[in-house]
Amino acid sequence: MGEAGQISLVLYEENFKEQLMAFQLPTEQAEFTALPSETLDAALSDPDKLAVVIAEDGQAAGFFILHTGNHIAEFYKDYQGAVLVRAFLVDYARQGRGIAKAAMALLPAFVRTHLPAVQEIVLTVNERNLPAGHLYLGAGFRDHGLRRTGSKGPQKVLQYELSLPQDNPDEETVLRERLTGIFSRSVLLMEVFHKARLLEPFPYYIGAGCLVQTVWNELTGRDPDYGIGDIDLIYFDPDDLSFAAEDHLIAKGRECFSGIAIPVDIKNQARVHLWYEDKFGVRLQPYSSLEAAIDSWPTTVTALGARLDGNGEWHIYAPFGLKDLFNLILRPNKVLISEQIYRSKTMKWQKKWPELQIMPWED
């Protein structure tokens, strides 16, 4: 059936109604959820409910309801700080193209934006509805053994914790595990990670765009390699700042990465200051390390480096943390770039990933 178009989550607007009322489901799916024709009016009249449209290229492709307040206690007794996802579905005519997966990936950021007080997303799924169960668990929901009895039989209560306590030191660990899990599922990146060891014994990282875009693609349900134009491979050799030495490694990399369709750009960060002003008009002090170079990269999400060593251990450098990355937020890192460059980069990225939230320069 082909790949889905651009998927987004939007609050219900009247222009979607005719499309939503035409939604259909086969009998085996209708047993487990309700159509918008059955739920929309009640949702619109309830201040504790938000009606949400899953849009594909601006057209209604799916629907669900976000329900807060004490009326969800029958589903989840610890309802304070929680939101219940209800009546989730994708129109039968649009199924089979990853729309539901993309919508679930966008859900956490959507809830954070529209229901900032919510700390947990909860949903129930009939134990017999195996496809839906796999979808929700794959989106990061967890089954902690909670059960309820619904009109159609036993239901699992699945939970998604939006935020760990601020003083919880494991928050970044959780995000790093998610990050390396996504990297591990990318055939392209894993091949690059393994071949990048050609730069040893110099310190090195794979950095910035290809890493970030791989994460965005998984979070938005796109192909893992979508939008990746090149792969930045950086190393640090302060003892030889000649172009000849760098060019030798570039040639070596060209041979090593010859089977990879996406260009691999190898640069010695110790010599960036020698050409940066001529190219960008900004005088740059020599970097003292690879990490110092990454510290100056243009956004909080793209200031990211990763490598996988020969022992299978991940090394991640993310000086601004990973929250913005997983929340699809672009925020400027003003160490080096101008507002014009920031706007240019973010506009280019948002054309490919419209789900991204662009924070203003004066944030």
UniProtKB/TrEMBL annotation:
It holds the Pfam family NTP_transf_6. This is N-acetyltransferase domain-containing protein. InterPro entries: Acyl_CoA_acyltransferase, GNAT_dom, NTP_transf_6. It comes from the Bacteria. Residues 7-165 form the N-acetyltransferase domain. It comes from Paenibacillus auburnensis. PANTHER family: BLL1166 PROTEIN.
